[in-house]
Specification:
Number of domains: 2
Largest sheet: 5 strands, mixed
Order of helices and strands: HHEEEEHHHEHEHHEHEEHEHEEHE
CATH topology of the largest domain: Nucleotidyltransferase, domain 5
CATH class of the largest domain: Alpha Beta
Number of strands: 13
Strand order of the largest sheet: 4-3-2-5-6
CATH architecture of the largest domain: 2-Layer Sandwich
Helix content: 25-40%
Number of helices: 12
Structural class: alpha/beta
């Protein structure tokens, strides 16, 4: 065996990666491999189950797009956001009534032939979801409304969003909320993106990564946000020329009621109302949300 052949044996890959990193001229990313156990089981620590979930769909309109793939896994976690055992990991294809566009196929790799004849076994999904009180998606404002159209088992759950409910910029010094980008910058790994279970398993691993100082799992900070009371503030009567400032501040246009609105932690309510008053928005509507309403159509 030549030296060049022996240098690429699996046993030597880690050493080669370390040498490249140490040079200061390279950054080496590992391909993610699904993990079934994070921290070892500890009977002294109270653990709960979370469902980390993702959908692939025929489009981006949450009122009408169809699910073509559903992936999720149930993971044990403690109150500090540490993960333990992955209890189950499942992925289901689903044939839509409509077509799958070339654009969707380009992103997901799924064609109508791939999903033909497949149906999501909702009895099995309901049995799994009934074990959890918390569901997490990387874009919960997209996945939740769609899944609630398909089954009521998602309605009475608390939902968290790993994209919007973790301050990645200040806690991890990362400016993008793209899951692939975060996995690279925070977790130093890559994966086969845009298939439901692949995304879920990568997101689980991302949430296990330590961020901030002192370091805590990203899941720790997500739980902190999820636990806070939420309010929906509607900037009713806002001047037209304020729209760019509202948009930059994170407000979204709600066309049905023709109003800019945003969900805030209740602790931010007072300061936000002061800012709105300073911008001549004197009659904003403030709606207290139930824990189970975040990211649902009930928060609109």
């Amino acid at each position: 065996m030549s030296l060049s052949q022996s240098a690429i044996l699996p046993d030597n890959l880690e050493q080669l990666a370390q040498q490249l990193e140490a040079s200061g001229h390279y950054q080496v990313l590992k391909k993610f491999q699904p993990i079934s156990q994070y921290l070892p089981d500890d009977s002294q620590i109270a653990r709960h189950l979370v469902c980390i979930i993702d959908t692939e769909t025929t489009g981006l309109n949450t009122d009408s797009c169809e699910v073509i793939e559903l992936g999720y896994q149930l993971v044990e976690f403690d109150s500090h956001g540490h993960f333990y055992k992955v209890v189950s990991a499942k992925n289901f294809l689903n044939e839509p009534e409509g077509d799958i566009s070339d654009e969707v196929t380009q992103v997901t790799g799924l064609t109508i032939d791939d999903v033909k004849g497949h149906r999501i076994p909702w009895d099995e999904v309901v049995a799994d979801i009934s074990q959890v009180q918390l569901c997490i998606a990387h874009n919960a404002g997209f996945d939740r409304p769609i899944l609630e159209r398909y089954h009521a088992c998602f309605v009475d759950k608390v939902w968290g969003c790993s994209a919007s409910q973790i301050d990645w910029f200040h806690l991890a010094k990362v400016g993008s909320r793209s899951q692939e980008f975060l996995c690279w910058k925070v977790g130093h790994f890559y994966y086969d993106a845009h298939r439901a279970l692949d995304d879920v398993q990568a997101l689980t691993h991302l949430l296990s990564q330590p961020i901030s100082d002192p370091p805590q799992p990203a899941m720790h900070f997500l739980l902190q946000t999820v636990r806070q009371q939420k309010v929906l503030i509607k900037a009713s009567g806002a001047p037209f020329d304020l729209k760019d400032d509202l948009k930059q501040r994170g407000y979204r246009w709600q066309p049905q009621n023709r109003v800019w609105q945003k969900v805030f932690d209740a602790s931010e309510q007072e300061s936000e109302l002061v800012w709105l008053s300073e911008q001549n928005v004197h009659t904003p509507d403030v709606i207290k949300l139930k824990a189970t309403d975040s990211f649902s159509i009930r928060a609109q």
